[in-house]
C-alpha cells in the first residue's frame, strides 16, 4: 500500500488488532499502561501501511490535541527564543507539542494568530502579549481554554488568570537608587520599538520614579523606526545637553549592540565618560571593558514556570491560576 491510497486510522487499528484509541495514543506519544508488544505491533503496522495521519483527523479522534499554542512578540529577539525553549522543555516532557507563532509585536497579527489557535483546537495558550487590553484574550476564557500570560503585563488582566513576569519596575527603582548613591545626576534610557504591552514600560516607570525620588533627571530616547545613524546623532545631542554625570541604560538587550558601536565612534568610554547598564543576560558582556553592569532576567525559568502553570490548569480542568513575579538579578560590574 502507498500513502496515495489514503489509509485511515481505522484501517491501521483493524490491521494491528487494536482499538482506534490505542493507535491515536501511540501517534501522540502516550504509552502509559500500554504493553511494549502492543506498541511495537502498532508501530510496525503504521510503517507497513505507510500511514501518515492528518492533524485534523487526529484531533477529531481524541478529546485533547496535545498541542499548546505559544505566541511571542518577536522571534528574532534571542530572549523570546529562550522563553519559548523554557516552555518547550517542560511541555515536551509532558507529552505536548508546541505551535510557536510570531506576532511581530502587532495587536492585529496577534488577534489573527489567536483565531488560528482556536481553530486548531489547541489544549492551551501561553502568550507574550502585545495588547494591554485583556479583551484581546477573553475568547480563550469564554471557551474554557487554559491561558497563561508571560513576560509582559496586561493592565486589566483578571487576578485568576495565570501570569509569570519579572519584577521590572522594582528592579529599575533599585537601580535608580544605586545610580544616585554612585553620584550620577542623569538617567538616559534607550528604548527599542515595542509592543503596547512591552516589558520596557514598567522599566521606564521604575526609573522615572527613582529619578524623581532621588533628585536625578530622567530622559528617554525611543528608537522606533530609526536606524543606528539617527540614534547616534540623537544620542550625541541629548548627552551633550546634560550636565553632570550620566548613566545610560539599555532597556532592551539588542539595543546594547547599537550603543557599543556608537560609543566607539564617539570615543566615549565607560565608566570614565558615562555609566552603562543593560537589561538581559549577555554572557559576553563581562568581557567588554571591565564588564557591563546588568539587570539579569532568567527567560528560560520564566518559560518553565509558565508551562507548569498551564499544565496545572489542564490537569485541574479549569482556567484559574496565579501570578508569579520573578526577581531581576542585579549583576554589579565596572561599567558604572
Question: Would you write up a description of this structure?
Answer:
Keywords: DNA-binding, Transcription, Transcription regulation. This is LacI family transcriptional regulator. One of its GO terms (molecular function) is DNA-binding transcription factor activity. It comes from Limosilactobacillus panis DSM 6035. 42% of the residues lie in helices and 18% in strands. The protein has 336 residues and is an alpha/beta fold. It has 3 domains: 3-60, Orthogonal Bundle (434 Repressor (Amino-terminal Domain)); 67-165 and 299-326, Response regulator (Rossmann fold), CATH 3.40.50.2300; 168-296, Response regulator (Rossmann fold), CATH 3.40.50. A 6-stranded parallel β-sheet has the order 2-1-3-4-5-11, sandwiched between helices. The chain is elongated, with a radius of gyration of 25 Å.
Please state how the strands of the largest beta sheet are arranged side by side: 2-1-3-4-5-11
| Tally of individual helices | 12
Low-confidence stretches: none
Q: Find the CATH superfamily of the largest domain.
A: Response regulator
Any idea of the CATH topology of the largest domain?
A: Rossmann fold
CATH architecture of the largest domain: 3-Layer(aba) Sandwich
The helix content, as a percent range, equals 40-55%
Q: What summary fits the major beta sheet? A: 6 strands, parallel
Domain HTH lacI-type: 7-62
Protein name: LacI family transcriptional regulator
Keywords: DNA-binding, Transcription, Transcription regulation
Domain HTH cro/C1-type: 7-32
Amino acid at each position: 500500500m502507498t500513502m496515495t491510497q489514503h489509509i485511515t486510522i481505522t484501517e491501521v487499528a483493524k490491521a494491528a488488532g487494536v482499538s482506534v484509541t490505542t493507535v491515536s495514543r501511540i501517534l501522540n506519544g502516550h504509552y502509559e499502561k500500554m504493553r511494549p508488544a502492543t506498541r511495537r505491533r502498532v508501530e510496525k503496522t503504521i510503517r507497513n501501511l505507510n500511514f501518515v495521519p492528518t492533524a485534523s483527523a487526529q484531533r477529531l479522534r481524541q478529546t485533547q490535541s496535545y498541542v499548546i499554542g505559544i505566541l511571542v512578540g518577536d522571534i528574532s529577539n534571542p530572549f523570546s527564543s529562550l522563553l519559548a525553549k523554557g516552555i518547550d522543555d517542560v511541555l515536551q516532557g509532558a507529552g505536548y507539542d508546541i505551535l510557536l507563532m510570531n506576532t511581530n509585536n502587532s495587536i492585529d497579527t496577534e488577534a489573527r494568530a489567536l483565531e488560528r489557535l482556536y481553530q486548531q483546537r489547541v489544549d492551551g495558550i501561553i502568550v507574550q502579549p502585545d495588547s494591554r487590553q485583556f479583551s484581546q484574550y477573553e475568547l480563550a476564557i469564554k471557551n474554557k481554554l487554559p491561558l497563561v500570560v508571560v513576560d509582559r503585563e496586561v493592565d486589566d488582566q483578571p487576578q485568576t488568570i495565570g501570569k509569570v513576569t519579572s519584577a521590572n519596575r522594582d528592579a529599575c527603582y533599585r537601580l535608580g537608587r544605586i545610580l544616585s548613591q554612585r553620584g550620577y545626576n542623569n538617567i538616559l534610557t534607550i528604548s527599542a520599538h515595542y509592543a503596547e504591552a512591552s516589558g520596557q514600560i514598567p522599566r521606564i516607570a521604575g526609573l522615572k520614579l527613582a529619578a524623581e525620588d532621588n533628585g536625578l533627571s530622567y530622559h528617554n530616547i525611543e528608537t522606533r523606526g530609526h536606524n543606528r545613524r539617527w540614534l547616534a546623532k540623537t544620542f550625541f545631542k541629548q548627552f551633550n545637553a546634560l550636565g553632570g554625570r550620566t548613566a545610560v541604560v539599555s532597556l532592551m538587550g539588542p539595543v546594547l549592540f547599537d550603543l557599543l558601536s556608537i560609543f566607539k565612534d564617539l570615543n566615549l568610554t565607560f565608566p570614565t565618560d558615562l555609566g552603562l547598564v543593560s537589561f538581559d543576560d549577555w554572557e559576553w558582556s563581562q568581557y567588554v571593558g571591565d564588564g557591563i553592569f546588568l539587570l539579569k532576567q532568567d527567560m528560560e525559568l520564566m518559560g518553565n514556570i509558565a508551562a507548569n502553570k498551564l499544565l496545572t490548569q489542564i490537569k485541574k480542568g479549569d482556567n484559574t491560576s496565579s501570578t508569579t513575579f520573578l526577581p531581576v538579578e542585579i549583576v554589579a560590574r565596572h561599567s558604572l
